[in-house]
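Ticket #4471: structure output looks truncated?

Reporter: J.K.
Steps to reproduce: submitted the chain below (164 residues) through the standard prediction queue, then opened the result file.
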Amino acid sequence: MKLNEIRDNEGARKKSKRVGRGIASGKGKTSGSGQKGQKARTGVAINGFEGGQMPIYRRLPKRGFNNIFKKVFSEVNLSKIQEAIDAGKIKAGQEIDAQSLLNAGVIRKLNDGIALLGRGEIKDKVTIKVAKASASAKEAIEKIGGQVIIGETNQKSAKAGKAE
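Returned output as attached by the reporter:
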C-alpha cells in the first residue's frame, strides 16, 4: 500500500445534490422546494404544525407537577464522613455541620441542609448536625457513642421561606 493509493471506502462520502442547475438535472428551477409560498422560502421551520390536524402536544393530557417549595437536601453517607476523617479533612472530636462538610469537600453545595444516610460504616465517635437522618445512620453513630443533632437547615432556605 502506498500513500497515493489510499482511498475512502466506496460510499463513505456522499456527493451533495447540485440543485438549481437546469431543468434537465431533475432538481432545477425550484430546486425541490415546490412552488412559491412559505415553505419554499429559506429560514422557515413550522415546529409542531401538523397540517391543520390537532397537534400531538395538544392531544395528550397534561401530567405532573413541579413543587417550587420542595426542599433539596445534600445527601451524605457515613462512609464519606469516615473517608474525610481518615484523610484528616475533618476532626472527629469537633462538631460536624454543613459548613465543615462543605469545607472538607464532602459536599459540593449546601442546598437546604444535609440528609445523613447509613451506607458504609463509621469508626470514630462524632457529633453531627444535620437537617435529617435515616434511622440506620442515627443508630450506627449512637452505637459507637456519637450523637446526631437533627434540625440544622441552611440559612438560605430559611430566609427564602419568610414572607416579608
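Triage note (M.O.): checked the attachment and the full C-alpha cell line is present. The mean pLDDT is 88.
Status: closed, working as intended.
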